Amino acid sequence: MLTINENGDGVTFRIRVQPKSSRTEIYGIVNETIKLRLAAPPTDNKANLECIAFLSKKFCIPKSSIQILQGQKSREKIIKIFGVNKGELEKMLSI
To answer: Which residues touch 32 (CB under 8 Å, ≥6 apart)?
Structure first.
């Protein structure tokens, strides 16, 4: 089960990315973390930008509403989405 923390202005949750995959997709939730494959390489911030773009498209929210709070240079990241509550995020993820 994914751990989602609600803040006053949005939600935070953990993801683990696998860059340089054959395609970009969510491939599961393990140990309270979303597993995300990214086609982009982990160089020049490309994987982080693709991560934000993918989540923006998946959740139908603007890229400006998504922020990587922690882990810009790591596979383990903490993501914040502004203007969304826990129930809305669970519905977007269909969990």
So the answer is: 1, 2, 3, 14
**What CATH number is given to the structural domain containing 32?**
3.30.1200.10
pTM of the model: 0.92
State the amino acid at position 27 in one-letter form: Y
Please count the structural domains in the chain. 1
Here the tokens at position 29 are: 């939730």
* Angle at 79 (CA atoms; ends 77, 82), nearest 5 degrees: 170
pLDDT of the chain, 95 residues: tens digit per residue: 899 999 889 999 999 999 999 999 999 999 999 999 999 999 999 999 999 999 999 999 999 999 999 999 999 999 999 999 999 999 988 75
Residues 6+ apart with CB under 8 A from 61: 81, 83, 84
